[in-house]
Amino acid sequence: QVQLEESGGGLVQAGGSLRRSCAAPRRTFSSHTMGWFRQAPEKERELVARISSGLGNTNYADSVKGRFTISRDNAKNTVYLQMNDLTPADPAVYSCTCPHSGSWGLGTLVTVSS
């Protein structure tokens, strides 16, 4: 397992946007699906979005479809989560992961003020 390096996130007003980034070593990133999870207080961790290697096929949780976009830059070994139209239902610790290797980022709290 390796530590994934995350950046971005923080505090935003409802309706605002944030972008999270997650960098991984090439050997972790290049051939594997990458994903973002979130966990709110007293709730189960849930998959927010994931993106495959190669064609970059994406999947989203129903709660974020149409608002969040996951993407990857293979040249930079980085996966992004663009979060738009954030609502009071979105605050959580957001973490990136490479399921194949079992690697995780440390996670960052995203807070949405009303």
Explain what the structure shows.
The protein has about 110 residues and is mainly beta. It is about 5% helix and about 50% strand. The chain contains one helix and eleven strands; from the N terminus they run βββαββββββββ. Strands 1, 2, 3, 4, 5, 6, 7, 8, 9, 10 and 11 form an eleven-stranded mixed beta sheet that branches. Strand 7 and strand 8 (about 80-85) form a beta hairpin. The longest helix has 4 residues, at about 25-30.
SSE layout:
Layout: E1 3-8, E2 10-13, E3 18-23, H1 26-29, E4 34-39, E5 46-51, E6 58-60, E7 68-73, E8 78-83, E9 92-98, E10 103-105, E11 108-113
Parallel strand pairs: 1-10, 2-11
Antiparallel strand pairs: 1-3, 3-8, 4-5, 4-9, 5-6, 7-8, 9-10, 9-11
How many helical stretches? 1
> What's the pLDDT, averaged over the residues?
92
- Give me the strand/helix succession: EEEHEEEEEEEE
Structural class: mainly beta
Q: What is the number of E strands?
A: 11
Rounded to the nearest angstrom, the distance between the terminal CA atoms is 38 Å
Helix content: under 10%
Beta-strand content estimate: over 45%
Based on Cα principal axes, name the global outline.
globular
Radius of gyration: 13 Å
In terms of per-residue confidence, which ranges show pLDDT below 50 for 5 or more consecutive residues? none
Described by strand count, sense and barrel closure, the largest sheet is: 11 strands, mixed
Descriptive labels:
114 residues; 4% helix; eleven-stranded mixed sheet; 1 helix
Could you provide a short overview of the structure?
This protein has 114 residues and is mainly β. Helices cover 4% and strands 52% of the residues.
